[in-house]
Structure formats: C-alpha cells, structure tokens
Amino acid sequence: MEGGTGVGIGLLSEDVLHNILSRLPALSYAYAACVSRSWRRVAAAVLSRPKLASAISFNPSCQDAVEEVLDSVLSRPIRPQFAIACVGIKFSLERTQKLITKKLGSATPVITSFASGIIGGDAMSEEFSITGSDAISEEFTEVNWSFDFEDSDDFDLPTNRDQGIVLIVGFMPGLKVDAIPLLRGSEEPCTPLIDKFVMDVRDYSAAVSGCTYPTGIVMFGGTGADLKHVLVEMGGYCSILCFG
C-alpha cells in the first residue's frame, strides 16, 4: 500500500495477477509465489497442468550453448522436475550434465545423451529448427550429426557439424520424478544388474506412491544396450518409452 490510500499490488484482481505471473521467467515466478498466500494460490493456478519447455542451440561452445537453452526454457514459469539433454558428439556429456545440474539444482534429475538428430525451437531466434540427415523444409536449419568416427580425422569436421544441444525440462503436477541409473562394466553379467534395476524402480515407486509400479518409465540406453528384460518385467504394468 502507498500512504494508506488503498492503492497497491494487494488490490490486483486474481485475473490481472494471473496474467502477470504467467509472463514471468521461472526464477521471478518462484519468488512471486512466496509473496503471500493469495499469490501462492494464483501461482499454483498458472502451473496447474503438465508443462514441457524445450530449446535448441548450435553454439559451438558447450558452456554458451547450455546457457542459451537454459535461459530459453526458464524464460517462462516452470518448476523443473526433470531435464533431458541431447547433444552432438563433440560436446562432453559430463560437462553438459554438470552445467545443467548447477543451474537446476542437484534435486532435479538430469539425463544427458548423444543424439544423431534433434528437432525443436531455437534458443536464440525462437525459430523452428531440425537437425539430422533428412531436411523436410528449406526454412529449417539442418545439421548432419554423425556417429561415423572412422571417417573423421580427430574430429576435423565442419564448424558446428557435431556441436549443439537440445534441452527439455518438464513439470508434471502430482507426479514424482527421479533418475535411476543402470551402469554395467563390459565384463559384468547383465541379468543380475537389470533385476536390481527393476527392484530399485519398484522400491522408489512404493516409497513415493505406495504402488510398486510407476505410472511410466523413460529409458535411455547406450549402443548395444538390451532393454528387453526391463520391458518384460514391467511393460505390462506401466507405460515405457525407450531411447537407444
């Protein structure tokens, strides 16, 4: 209030406040939700439905590319519950993972993987972009990402050919999300580790929901990864989406 005149932000209608909060970047939105109970209620209404935000950057600098996509996906209200990043083969998975985790916080599960082609909205221009071997329109940016290491001499490739990132962050109200790894050495038997992985998934689901099977699973596997055992064990009880 100003000078007791009864004029101030406290007199904003919920419709006007909803309009304002829905335009804020994620961090400002989070601060606004802490102003008062009424603001918290309106902020909850802004994110009352599931939301995904994505962006692409072809910046040849890994750090700059990650910053660009993060700034883009966090430019509107969202509470990231998970993040999925796909990068070109000349970017470091470990560095990308660390940069994203530093920004979103260690409590947000982050999955980072290599990709041979990606599609989405450009982080800087907000234009639609496509990467891969098959361009579907001259309006799209095309970058041919390849895993053919034998044909390259120490990655002496054209600028940006294998550099870039697409980032997706998601908010699913009412759902709990976590990342559960399955790491296997080349000499280790696969079946016991997969059995443990399935048990870890069921234990997590039981801990957060009381149900031994989750609503859904998104799995990423490296080259040669065999995910069929997990599908057999859990495919009849929940939705599973696999990337390999």
What's this model, at a glance?
With about 240 residues, the protein is α/β, with parallel strands linked by helices. It has seven helices and eight strands. The chain has helices spanning about 15-20, 25-30, 35-45, 60-75, 95-105, 190-210, 230-235; strands spanning about 50-55, 80-85, 110-115, 120, 130, 165-170, 215-220, 240-244.
Secondary-structure topology with pairs:
Blueprint: H1 14-21, H2 26-32, H3 37-46, E1 51-57, H4 62-73, E2 82-87, H5 93-104, E3 110-114, E4 119-121, E5 128-130, E6 165-171, H6 190-209, E7 216-220, H7 228-234, E8 239-243
Parallel strand pairs: 2-3, 7-8
Antiparallel strand pairs: 1-6, 2-6, 4-5
Helix pairs in contact: 1-3, 4-5, 6-7
Structure write-up:
This protein is α/β, with parallel strands linked by helices and 244 residues long. 31% of the residues lie in helices and 17% in strands. The strands form three sheets. The chain has a four-stranded mixed sheet with strand order 1-6-2-3. Strands 4-5 form a two-stranded antiparallel sheet. Strands 7-8 form a two-stranded parallel ribbon. Strand 7, helix 7 and strand 8 form a beta-alpha-beta unit. Helix 1 packs across helix 3 (37-46) and helix 4 packs parallel to helix 5 (93-104). The protein is flat, with a radius of gyration of 21 Å. Residues 1-6, 130-142 and 147-159 have low confidence and may be disordered.
